[in-house]
Amino acid sequence: MSQSAATVQRVLRETRSVAIVGASANPARPSHEVWTYLQAATDYTLYLVNPTITGIDGIPVYPSLAALPEVPDLVDVFRRHEELPHVLADAIAVGAKTLWLQQGLCHERVARDGAAAGLTVVQDLCLKVEYARFA
């Protein structure tokens, strides 16, 4: 599992769709900030995932990765550490290419198992910051 600048740049370049797992309607939450930035700054198709809400600002929120209308290239994760293995299992099950654990999230078993399943795994980096850095 590599998080070199070249790997991050490749992921950003090859990604067309992003699922934000743990999306929040609260503008103060990092997931909301990342979503609104990506909405404004990128051409990515964005999907919000949270089983506890149905919409944010008129945008549908899906209860799971499996409920999305397409397979996301990248799964951007804003969940607690103990929930990361479940998110990985869901990302593998739907066929995502990249599992991106937001800044502050590291899970060595998830990273190892994700890489073994063929996913690119990025840990402890903010998708918004990295996009802005390389865009």
From TrEMBL:
Top-level taxon in the UniProt lineage: Bacteria
TM segment ranges: none
Pfam families in the cross-refs: CoA_binding_2 (PF13380)
InterPro entries the record matches: CoA-bd, NAD(P)-bd_dom_sf
Residues of the CoA-binding domain: 11-105
SMART domains associated with the record: CoA_binding (SM00881)
This protein's name: CoA-binding protein
Protein species of origin: Mycolicibacterium frederiksbergense
